[in-house]
Amino acid sequence: RIQCYTTETVGTAAWHHVALTYDGSVSSAGVAFYIDGTASTVTQQFNSLVGSTVSNTNLKLGMNISLGSLIDPVLGYINEVAIFNAALSAGNITTIYNAGHTGDISAMSNLVSWYRFETALTPADDATTIYDRKGSDNGTGVSLVSGDFSTDVP
Length: 154
Prior knowledge:
By secondary structure, the chain is mainly beta. It is 6% helix and 27% strand. The chain has one helix at 90-99; strands at residues 2-5, 18-22, 31-35, 38-40, 43-47, 64-66, 69-71, 81-84, 111-115, 129-130, 139-140. The chain has a three-stranded antiparallel beta sheet with strand order 2-3-4. It has a two-stranded antiparallel ribbon with strand order 1-5. A two-stranded antiparallel ribbon has the order 6-7. The termini are far apart.
């Protein structure tokens, strides 16, 4: 497995853009972190990938699950999650960051899923559904209620 982290911190009084890229190599050297459009230092914790990174396990955002228990949940809001099937360049990250919340990335190459974390599409929609604005892989918010969606976005 490959496990990396950055020790850089973000303030709690404002929105921040955080991006992670991975180039598909078998090394942590292929991992890059960006905070507010700027590359951050990457520290490797594990660097012993054997086999494939392809998995049928559900992607979990905002939580770390260890042995079935939720640990270290994100304390704050998450907005605008995009998943690409290729590593983005530093220039791509800067373009997305500079576009801000109103930027439309739906035409970007290699975009697979784009979760804007908006409220339901129509009043009849389930408030716990996280809609994929690019593909068809809608997600389910765990323990979400309608009031958990915020209009306080950048």
